[in-house]
Amino acid sequence: MLVEATGLCKSFGATRVLDGVDLSAAEGEVLALLGPNGAGKTTIVRILSTLTRPDAGTVRIAGVDAVREPARARALFSLTGQASAVDDRQTGRENLVMMGHLAHLGRRESRRRADDLLERFDLTHAADRRVQTWSGGMRRRIDLAMSLVGGPRVLFLDEPTTGLDPAGRATMWDTIGDLVRGGTTLVLTTQHLEEADRLADRVVLVDGGRVTASGTPEALKTLVGGDRLEIRVADAAGLRRVADLHPAAVVDREGRTVTLPSDGGAAHLHAVLDELRAAGVAVDGVRSARPTLDDVFLALTRPASPSAPQPVAAGTAA
Amino acid sequence: MTTALAAPAVRHTGARAALSDRLTMSARSLRLTSRDADTLVMSIVLPVLLMALFVYVFGGAISGRAEYVDYVVPGIVLLCAGYGAASTAMVVAADTTSGMVDRLRSLPVRSSAVLTGHVVASVARNALSTAVVVGAALLMGFRPDAGPLEWLATAGVLLLYVLALSWLAALLGVLASGVESASALSFLMLFLPYLSSAFVPPETLPTALRAVAEHQPITPVIETVRGLLTGTPIGSSGWLAVLWCGGILAVAVTAAGWAYRRRGRT
């Protein structure tokens, strides 16, 4: 494992933010930390990137103990946090070249990499303008580009698309996709299920400072149930008849839809439609659906939420 | 793309890397400061306005204007240098509360390099504004009788004073919770010279204030600069000035580095 964290605990004052978080990412893998606001995602990333010291637990990055030897670990990763980490009063190129110098690449190589990254992130046209004149999407891209100057083995991205419009988000997803194809190991946090679904090899669901589930997006979806068949019926009478035939079905009277469990296969679809025709039910439409990560998210976080981020009673915090 | 991302085999430790980081961060701070029009204009306009105020408004009321100009200029120069150096606290606080600080802190870069950069920029900014103030003073009738050596010594004392105050400002900037609270030092540095020998001889002050004026660090620095430029007796002020500034510098450098490392690493 390139990134491995075990038993991370962290309290701020009497508030327990993390309560025994384990996670790991293999070389070349994209790991998404998915969770609602206040779940502890940012604290996890800050601990992984040596900015915050955990109360308990270990972090290893490429075998280096990041808690005990933060200085060594810092040579191995890069962080793009939530807040913009770009100097507004420097130009895009100056920001990148500065990062090259800080990575001790030498003048020539720093300039070469800056050119390279400007090109790759489609920022060449604005390279010599101060970043304060740039758009939000461009700023986010240079933020990410600056994290790549030193050639990190691991990249931590804290909510990479927060604050971007849909177009900016799509561009950012493409950029991240390119990085991943280039072999960079990625740990990212997000509140957007779609984002996790689209980018991540594995998802860790974080809620109330704990990992409530983890696995591939597909595996997580199976966790809340398999495929479903949504049947839109023409009239209320038909709706009643389907409900009689399938007592387990979920009936939505307003939308005139019935949802049945399914194995996702064509045979089952045919069987259901034949059965409905025989019963004289007029069908308007049929849709086969897999559960979305939204379903997973709601199923796994909702019950825990009311009791989750409990403040630890003052005297008992270890 | 993979080639561009290959991790370079470079060392991030050792004296060369540390020096390189300091130079990089100094270049950054100098660039940022030279493009920060507000701070730059304030650190030049305010001193010149104050100079004009003391020379033309108060100067006429107090004894002869020409003599008072010679008396007050060293104080104004110190006031401006102090104010300019103190504004570093706001620069550092703004930088320390921005997202940039997390990026810098998560790099294998020694933390003191960041603060060194800010202090280098502060010294450069103050060298510029001090030169402007001295120039304005000469235009307003300041007639120093200092030779080249005295000017050099004056520059040295001012440099030490600005350096000590800049590091002190950097320390307060790191400790401050935001830019607003960091501006408290600027206020203090605007106010403290009035309780020194800058504008009136301490002998004219009430006893309590006189005790403050005679024992605070700004007075020996002003007396030293005044002595060097206009030939008034320096006495023990020279040593006191160097001791005060050196002491503040040593404490502030150590404490600022410590505070910067601690902050955020909660």
TrEMBL record, chain A:
Its main location: membrane. It holds the Pfam family DrrA1-3_C. It comes from the Bacteria. It is found in: Cell membrane. SMART domains: AAA (SM00382). The keyword Zinc-finger does not apply. It is a peripheral membrane protein. GO terms for molecular function: ATP binding; ATP hydrolysis activity. SUPFAM superfamilies: P-loop containing nucleoside triphosphate hydrolases. Keywords: Antibiotic resistance, ATP-binding, Cell membrane, Membrane, Nucleotide-binding, Translocase, Transport. NCBIfam families: drrA. Belongs to the ABC transporter superfamily. Drug exporter-1 (DrugE1) (TC 3.A.1.105) family. This is ABC-2 type transport system ATP-binding protein.
UniProtKB/TrEMBL annotation, chain B:
GO terms for molecular function: ABC-type transporter activity. GO terms for biological process: response to antibiotic. The chain crosses the membrane at residues 40-59, 71-94, 115-139, 151-175, 182-200, 238-260. It is found in: Cell membrane; Membrane. It comes from the Bacteria. Keywords: Antibiotic resistance, Cell membrane, Membrane, Transmembrane, Transmembrane helix, Transport. InterPro entries: ABC2_TM, ABC2_TM_bact-type, ABC_2_transport, Nod_factor_ABC_transporter. It is a multi-pass membrane protein. The keyword Ribosomal protein does not apply. One of its GO terms (cellular component) is ATP-binding cassette (ABC) transporter complex. Residues 38-263 form the ABC transmembrane type-2 domain. PANTHER family: NODULATION PROTEIN J. Belongs to the ABC-2 integral membrane protein family. This is Transport permease protein. It comes from Geodermatophilus aquaeductus. The lineage of its organism: Bacteria, Bacillati, Actinomycetota, Actinomycetes, Geodermatophilales.
